[in-house]
Fold this protein.
Amino acid sequence: MTRSEPPTLESTKLREASPEGGASSRRSSPRRAGDEPPPAGPADERRPADPARRRRGRLLLAAFVVLLALTWAFVAEPFRIPSESMEPTLRPGDQVLLDKLAYRLGSPHRDDLAVFHSPEGGEISLKRIVGLPGDRIGIEDGVLSVNGHLEREAYVNYRLTDSVYFGPVTVPPGHVFVMGDNRSNSRDSREYGAVSEKALMGRVLLRLWPLSR
């Protein structure tokens, strides 16, 4: 019998280096981070805006502007108090909201705070309506007289109107008699006469500014 020789050190090294040497010879090299493909993300380009949506936005804006203009012209309008003639009720610089439909859809009433075109040059004024068509209006010792009845008004400073007399006069048809609450410092119907109802622009709804009063 032929005796097999033991493997030498050199043959053992050759087997370890050969492809059949087993899993120990197959060492995978580490993978670099740059070798992997970048993760999928959203597209960089934005989708163009919808033309129909843009048109709707422009139409809504135009409708709002038209509505605001119509409201300002025919329904309501802010008004700034220009003088001291309505103190203490309203002071110079106060802002009020004017109801422009009040005298188009209704009639004036006593005690209304009305904005109108003055008979003197057509300037815009704000006064209190104290007399209606047919009323007899006068002032007796600083106190307003309406059809022979004395009207004590809480907003009038009677210390400044003491010994003041006026009239009486009759308010003509289609007119109103107006006075400022600051009777001692107001140019009103006592000087320029009754105001035509056609000259009335509107009635004060509320004071917008200042909020503290």
The first helix runs from residue 9 to 17. The domain at 77-209 is CATH 2.10.109.10 (Umud Fragment, subunit A).
